[in-house]
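Practice problem 4.
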């Protein structure tokens, strides 16, 4: 039997400091700058900078360019979920995504929330010759797309409020939501009906509908969405499509939470 590997003192110190940074930010929903972290923890600035950059690269922290503040992402929450490869979020969502694409014919995507942005994790392209597609890992503001809205809507109240306060609104089209008040009203409606819609708010002529994938604690770990031309996803069909997305997202949630 091979002896268990031992960590060098420098590695232990880095690990301890990294955990200290995570613990501090867990108590700071409004985030913290490098100076805040350095002063509160009493650590060398160069060490905090190196650790913070590493945690950002690994996806455990996000950095807001405007304020230069660091925030915890939801990646830590995912560590408490089943870790077997067969139970990954993408794997658990494949069957539901396939069913949704078959029912709607449109590009179906799996997304998650990182900071104030929606990130594309997986995708099945539309069956139509003219189709919407995005690169895996592509990001867009949470307030201008259906999956971003639905992920915000199902966050715990304190986290939802903090996330909305960090959004820097920008107009992309005539229908883009551009104020916190309007966005809060929107997410309240999304929470009530169980799905979100995008009325060409991010791209002219493109609509999308999304529903949340919830873990066993009802935390939104992801969202399934369809996206396509407005003439194929008209507002008159939002309710019908929303039900299809809710059914599919529930199927994915059940698979994700199954032991």
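Answer key:
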């Amino acid at each position: 039997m091979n002896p268990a590997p031992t960590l060098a003192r420098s590695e232990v110190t880095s690990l301890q400091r990294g955990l200290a940074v995570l613990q501090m930010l867990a108590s700071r929903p409004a985030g913290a700058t490098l100076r805040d972290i350095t002063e509160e923890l009493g650590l060398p600035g160069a060490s905090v900078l190196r650790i913070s950059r590493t945690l950002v690269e690994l996806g455990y922290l996000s950095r807001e360019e405007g304020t230069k503040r660091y925030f915890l992402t939801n990646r830590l929450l995912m560590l408490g979920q089943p870790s077997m490869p067969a139970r990954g979020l993408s794997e658990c969502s494949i069957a539901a995504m396939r069913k949704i694409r078959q029912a709607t014919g449109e590009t179906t995507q799996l997304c998650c929330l990182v900071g104030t942005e929606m990130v594309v994790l997986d995708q099945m392209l539309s069956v139509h010759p003219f189709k919407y597609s995005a690169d895996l890992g592509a990001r867009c503001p949470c307030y201008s797309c259906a999956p971003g809205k639905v992920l915000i809507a199902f966050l715990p109240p304190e986290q939802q409020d903090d996330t909305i306060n960090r959004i820097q609104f920008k107009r992309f089209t005539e229908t883009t939501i551009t104020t916190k008040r309007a966005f809060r009203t929107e997410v309240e409606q999304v929470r009530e009906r169980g799905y979100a819609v995008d009325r060409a708010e991010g791209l002219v002529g493109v609509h999308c509908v999304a529903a949340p994938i919830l873990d066993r604690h009802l935390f939104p770990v992801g969202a399934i969405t369809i996206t396509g031309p407005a003439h194929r996803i008209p507002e008159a069909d939002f309710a019908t499509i929303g039900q299809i997305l809710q059914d599919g997202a529930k199927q994915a949630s059940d698979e994700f939470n199954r032991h």
